[in-house]
Amino acid sequence: MSAVTLNDSSLKEIMNSPDTLPLPVAAPAKPRPVPFLETERGQAFSEGIGKFFRAVLPPIIGIVLFILLWQIVSSSGGEQGLPGPAKTWASAQELFADPFYDNGPNDKGIGWNILHSLYRVGAGFGLAALVGIPLGFMIGRFAFLAGMVAPIISLLRPVSPLAWLPIGLYVFKETEPASLWVIFISSIWPIILNTAAGVSRVPQDYLNVARVLNLSEWKIFTRILFPSVLPHLMTGIRLSIGVAWLVIVAAEMLTGGTGLGFWVWDEWNNLNVEHILIAIFIVGIVGLLLEQLLVMIANRFNYE
Amino acid sequence: MHNYLQIENAKMVFDTKKGKFTALTDINLNVQQGEFIALIGHSGCGKSTLLNLVAGLTEATEGVLLLSEKEIKGPGPERGVVFQNHSLLPWLTCFGNVHLAVERVFGAKESRAKLKERTQAALDLVGLSHATHKHPNEISGGMKQRVGIARALAMEPKVLLLDEPFGALDALTRAGLQDELMRIVKETHATTLMVTHDVDEAVLLSDRIVMMTNGPAATIGEILDVDLPRPRDRLKLAENPAYHHLRGQVLEFLYQKHLKKAA
């Protein structure tokens, strides 16, 4: 075997000789497409789907079972039984087709009734906040005042809200301020107590900062006390709006005129049981939305 | 050199549920302007109590505390305190936390722009220019402690009081902040009183180490002069026999003369 020296010219010669077959140029291998679920994004996708189902499936099954149970209860009662889900749904559609009609004092659309109840809760609660928040701050700040009002609060707090209604009717001689009064008196306690608890639990560290910096009372209030109490205050507001919403339905049943409570009682007198069931759902859903809204606001002020 | 901070026969008695508790007694200490003093001792020996007396957060039962010949009555912005747990207000940004202090001290006589400038300068000094608009829950423990130092320094206090400022930090972060503190003290010539339980920290940073006996009724046991030249470099000190001798003296005080009985 003779040694062949390879250099540029000999290489060219070899390549150009007819004996040299060109190597078949392999077509660039197409990468096997990776199944979507095996890619990183696919994995995340399937995981997300899994999470979604684990979160959503149980509530859906729960609701379906609840509706089934409702159906069974209603159909077992025969003619006199509770209206079933389908009948109630049809009635609700009819009801919500025109929520804002107004045919005089005792016949208003469902929308008006909801708004009236919300207005009363808002007004009664607003008054309670106006009185309760400053009072709570003072009770939390001054032990003497706390000692003074403690027995009164403990005595009045457990009283059923509706027990205040006759007092309201007697004092105000009218139903509207009387129902606001009931909301006011039943929703003020959680505000006072939570605000006071918040003030007395302001961390000593923050108060030491205030002392070392020698801050003015106004600065202590705006920069330290108020932001520090805010989460407690939000808890108080949530609890008291919750109570107010519970109480308004009962109060309106007694005072009449407008509102969800009045409507429930009115439909009971008309023996329209579908509407009573619908009212129960509305009360529940509005209460849930209020609660969620307040939780959202409260989270905004959580600094932990 | 006159005595800048004077503590004479200070005694601190607390009223507790179990009766009177004497935390400190016969405390006599003179600190000169620009001096860096470390207070060291076993936990519960009342070193933080002593710092709180100087801060004015608590009032001595007996004795007198003087700062540049004026009696200390209550807290005041001429004594900047850095708290053990940083104590930043979580609803204010780093800037807001420092600005609160600046506004209080200089707000009456300086313009808004000047106040902002001061705040920013304090944050720059502790190396936090980039975190100005972050909230305390968005930054690390070491950075929070830096904001605490910036807040104290921004008031241009006569005395800087540090209560175990680096106690809750990991060793690496602590070393970094110690170097930073040495630089800041050198730049600002601050008179500093620092509570610590870290022997190396005490020797590295201070001009004098005040060693305290165990409570109850704790008092100053010995005062050690740390005559190591400045600037001090922790790596070079590791090979310095004088450093080891001083370290040994503090350890001897803590673990032989005043070993705390196991609780």
How do you describe this structure in short?
The complex is a heterodimer of chains A (304) and B (263). With 304 residues, chain A is mainly alpha-helical.
Description:
The complex is a heterodimer of chains A (304) and B (263). Helix content of chain A is 74%, strand content 0%. Chain A is mostly helical and 304 residues long. In chain A, helix 4 packs antiparallel against helix 5 (143-156) and helix 4 runs antiparallel to helix 9. Chain A is flat, with a radius of gyration of 35 Å. Chain B has a six-stranded mixed β-sheet with strand order 6-7-8-3-9-10, with helices on both faces. In chain B, strands 2-1-4-5 form a four-stranded antiparallel β-sheet, covered by helices on one side. Chains A and B meet through helix 8 and helix 9 of A and strand 6 and helix 2 of B.
Keywords:
heterodimer, A: about 300 residues, mainly alpha, MetI-like fold, about 0% strand, flat, B: about 260 residues, alpha/beta, 4-stranded antiparallel beta sheet
Q: Strand tally of chain B, please?
A: 10
* Strand residues, percent of chain B: 25-35%
Q: How would you name the oligomeric state of the polypeptide chains in this document?
A: heterodimer
Share of residues in helices of chain B: 25-40%
**Which whole number gives the mean pLDDT of chain A?**
86
What percent strand of chain A?
under 5%
Strand order of the largest sheet of chain B: 6-7-8-3-9-10
The unreliable regions of chain A are none
- Helix content class of chain A: over 70%
| CATH-level-2 architecture of the domain at 105-303 in chain A | Orthogonal Bundle
Count of helix runs of chain A: 11
Average the pLDDT over all residues of chain B and give the rounded result. 88
SSE topology string of chain B: EEEHEEEHHHEHEHEEHH
Distance between the termini of chain A: 85 Å
Give, in order, the helices and strands of chain A: HHHHHHHHHHH
Gyration radius over CA of chain B: 19 Å
Within CATH, the superfamily of the domain at 105-303 in chain A carries the name MetI-like
Distance between the termini of chain B: 43 Å
Structural class of chain A: mainly alpha
